[in-house]
Amino acid sequence: MRTKSPRKLRVHFLQHVAFEGPAAIAEWMSARGHRLTSTHFYRGDRLPAVGSVDWLVVMGGPMNVYEHRFHPWLREEKRFLADAIAAKKTVLGVCLGAQLIADVLGGKVYQNMDKEIGWMPVRFRGEKATEVFFRGTPRKMTVFHWHGDTFDLPPKATLLASSPACVNQAFAFGERVVGLQFHLETTLESVAALVRHCGKELTRGRYIQTAKQIIRHSENFAANREALWGLLRGLETKTIGRGR
Fold it and tell me: How far is residue 145's CA from residue 142's CA, in Å, rounded to a whole number?
């Protein structure tokens, strides 16, 4: 992780709320020596030119992809993502970010039957695409969730992971676009921030844990980080391989 990459990539983060940042993703990127920039929509930041970035990381947030009335910047963000994907940029979306990518690619986003909040298992599918992005990752692992919406798999996308509460947990579109409904990037600090800012969502439900259950399961961070590192290394290799 600490070895710098042979070429610095221009990595741009899209952040929707102050308390849901890139966490462990930014740690890995910084250690690799990549150039990090960001757009904070909640502060009214402007988006960069698509040609000025190599890699987009789209973070989560409590809003829904269809709430244009309350968050007018969603339309602009979707256009930007569509342009980035058309330009064959590397794009990684987390939670809301994955839903935005799915929406842009033609997948329907809607309310899931159950909210899924806390540490719960996902199962990675035994397909070639899964091995490309999650090589060495256990077929079943416990990851962190915080979502109420889900999405239909976009046309030409490949399903990578599922859970009992949510069929479409991760997908790939081609070799450089990945959407994760779950949060591999979580740290103790980022999980605590979610509990602090969104704790009202921790009501009774089949797939909702209590704040105590969420905070105390620190043993899962290491495995989640290892899976994240593998995914980021693979995407980095593909991004550097095609050049700017």
Answer: 10
